[in-house]
Every structure is written in structure tokens, then in C-alpha cells.
Amino acid sequence: MRERSYPPPYPDGWYRVALSSELRRGDRRYIECLGRELLLYRSDIDDSVHAMGAFCPHLGASLVGGCVKQGNIQCPFHGWQIAGDGHVAHIPYAKRLPVRAVQPTWPVCERYGQIFIYHRGELRSTAASACKVDTSQPPAYAFPHIPDLDDGRLVYRGKHDAGTVHMHLLEFAENSVDFQHFSPLHGQMFVPWTGIRVPGVEILHEAEWALETDPKLHHLAYFRNNAILRVFGRLLQRTRASAMITFYGPAGVVTFRFKIPDVGEMLMFQTHLPTAPLAQKVDFHWFAEPKIPRLLVSYVIGNWVAQWQNDVAIWEHKIHRERPLLVQEDGPIMRLRRWFSQFYPDGGGIKVAAPEALAAGAE
User: Fold this and answer.
1) Region of 360 on the Ramachandran plot (φ > 0 left; ψ -120 to 50 alpha; else beta)
2) What is the per-residue pLDDT across 71-103, written as a single tens digit (0 to 9) for each?
3) Angle formed at CA 308 by CA 32 and CA 40, multiple of 5 degrees
4) Rg (Cα) of the chain, in Å, rounded?
5) How many other CB atoms are there within 10 angstroms of residue 354's CB atom?
6) Which residues pair with 209 in a beta bridge?
7) Which among 286, 234, 226 has a CA at the least distance from the CA of 256?
8) What pLDDT was estimated at residue 136?
9) Which residue, among 250, 248, 239, has the nearest Cα to 267 in the 3D structure?
10) 241 near 227, Cβ under 8 Å?
11) How far is the CA of 90 from the CAs of 44, 178, 186, in angstroms?
12) For a disulfide at 139, which of 118, 145, 168, 283, Cβ 3.0-4.6 Å?
């Protein structure tokens, strides 16, 4: 099976679970993701968002069928109220309450019109096929602040629900260092948002990949792509553009900063939420300088989505090679895997050094 060739499906990190607009005051939402069944709810007191296990710790009723009351979630079965931190806050017929937190909860960050939770796994036993979940520890790193979104220099311009892609999260991260796939998969121009090729127009790419040098920010990785169009064999310098892609952890949250000379900047979130071992719920959420026409913003974002769809066609039908046969001209694939392995408590079984599999000194 394809699934067996890959590392465990749920690396530690931040994941987007909903849009802010999808969860109004007092709303509840049931979500299956990261190997868990979760309840997401918004407080009726202060609008804060909480994530916890979906079933009551008392006798297992679904909390989604309950209601939000005084900042707590009230079970529909016996009226128990569970606070956002997992403690039992109220039992209508009990004189004494359980004093320890009995309900698993997840750290939540609501920012830029989106709701994110932090998932952390535990060490796997030899008999287990997937990680258990540890919700007792704080996130290994904070969700990022992006200054030009915080100060309003870039404003919200749109979103796109791309549905579910049947792949492992590692593939998206590894794609950033696979420099040799750019020409065969991304060397042609497509009509934005479609798979229709534009005849006579080629895209030339110059790519580089780097890790954050600050040890406190080891969860960050960067991929820069400079592109220029060649139309019927002629380079058009005025079409030169650049994109800086930032990985905030293991590709659950990735941002793309597009810079077009004499036009301006745009920033796009691409988020992946693992809903099954080889299934990613993919969403796009973007911002731009107010001066850039909406049509042009949609054109740029649509261009990326059209190119991304070419990758999807490969990802959904490939397997993971633990010991790939590489050549000198391949990108730093093993270095990327070494970086990615930090998001598993035990390294996830990712092979980060296999010298017998490398050819001509490839990394």
C-alpha cells in the first residue's frame, strides 16, 4: 500500500481547521482530523475559540449536540459543563466536581480570519501504527505574526477551497527542494485556475532553499523562486517576478509572498489539514496591497493554483522512497527530510542519511 511507504501521517505543528466566519458566537463544529474527533466552539462570553475532544468524559455523549453556556460546552445528556481548558466546570446534580482536567484540549490561535490548532503527538510504540496525542504540553513554537497583515498594509482579497488531495504532507515540503521537477511540470504557462496551456509561453525558474539560522526558529524553512516568461523564444524582462515561500513547521501552514516589479506585493496562505493518513484538506487564503486590482490578484493566485494542480496529479499516484537514488544535480532532498523529521517526537522513522543510495555525492 502507498500509505505504508510514508512516515506517520500527522506530524506536530499548527493546522487550520476553520475560517473565523464559519464559527459565530455560541457555535459548535465537529471536525475529524489528525486522527482525532474534535469539537470546536466559540465562547458566548468573550468570543474565544476552544478545541477539545468531541465526546463527553462522563458517558461519551457527543458534545456537538450540546450548547455553549457561560463560556463552557454543556453536554446534552446529563448537563455536564466542560470548560475550554478541559476541566469539569459544573454538574447540575453533583456536590463535588472532578478536580483534574479529564478532557483533552488543543491550543488554538485565531488570526487573519482563520482558526488554527496545534497538534502534538507522542512516541509511538512498536505495536502502534500511528501516534497517540499529547495535549498536555504547550506548542513547540508560536503561531506567526505577519507584520504587514497586522498593520493593514496588505488587505484580505479572497479564498479558495481546493478540496481534498490524496497525498502525504511530506510531499508538499519535499517538492520545494526538488528543483529538477520545475521544468517538466512548471515550465509551461497555463490559463489561471485551469489546466489549459498557453501556447508559445514558457516559464523559466531559478530556485533556492534555506533553513532559518536562528536556533530558536528551527521550525522555519524558506524557498525562493524567481521566474521570468519566454514568449516564442524571447525573454520578457518586464515579466520577472519572485515568490518567497515560508514553511511554518511541516507544511500545515505555508505562506507565499509574491512580488511583482512596479505592481506590488501579495501574500497567500496555503494550508493543509490531514483528515486521513493520505488525505489533505487544502485551502488558499490571500491578501494584497489595496492598490493592486482584484482581477490581477486573482490572476496571480490562479496561476499558482494551476501550476500546483500539476503537482497534485503526481503526488496522488506516487510512493515514498526511503532511500531514493539521487544524482548530484538533484536538490537537497535529504536535508529537507532531516529538517522535517523534527516534527515527530521520534523522528517519524524518516531516513535522513542513506549514503549507499546516493550517487555522485548527491546530498
Assistant:
1) left
2) 999 999 999 999 999 999 999 999 999 988 789
3) 20
4) 22
5) 15
6) 223
7) 286
8) 60
9) 248
10) yes
11) 16, 54, 57
12) 118
Q: Which residues pair with 279 in a beta bridge?
A: 276
Q: Is residue 353 over pLDDT 70?
A: no
According to DSSP, the residues that pair with 131 across neighbouring strands are: none
108-119 pLDDT, tens digit per residue, is: 999 999 999 999
pLDDT in tens, 204-232: 998 899 999 898 899 999 999 999 899 99
Determine the 3-state secondary structure of 241 from DSSP. Answer: strand
- Which residue is it, cell 534555506? 210
User: Kindly report the CA angle at 336 between 330 and 342, in degrees rounded to 5?
Assistant: 165
Q: Are 137 and 105 in contact (CB under 8 A)?
A: no
Residue with cell 535529504: 334
With b for 16 or more beta-carbon neighbours within 10 A and e for fewer, the 168-177 pattern comes to bbbbbbbbbb
Give pLDDT tens digits for 150-175.
Answer: 999 999 999 999 999 999 999 999 99
Whole-model pTM? 0.92
Q: What is the largest CA-CA distance in the chain?
A: 81
Q: Mean pLDDT across the stretch 128-136?
A: 45
| 215 φ/ψ angles, rounded to the nearest 5 degrees | -60, -20
Phi and psi at 114, nearest 5°, equal: -135, 155
Q: Cα(162)–Cα(319) distance, rounded to whole angstroms?
A: 22
- Strand 234-248 vs strand 279-288: parallel, antiparallel, or unpaired? unpaired
* Dihedral sign from CA coordinates of 190, 185, 306, 295: negative
Strand ranges of the sheet holding 197-211, from the earlier edge strand across to the other edge: 155-165, 279-288, 264-276, 253-260, 234-248, 220-231, 197-211, 188-190
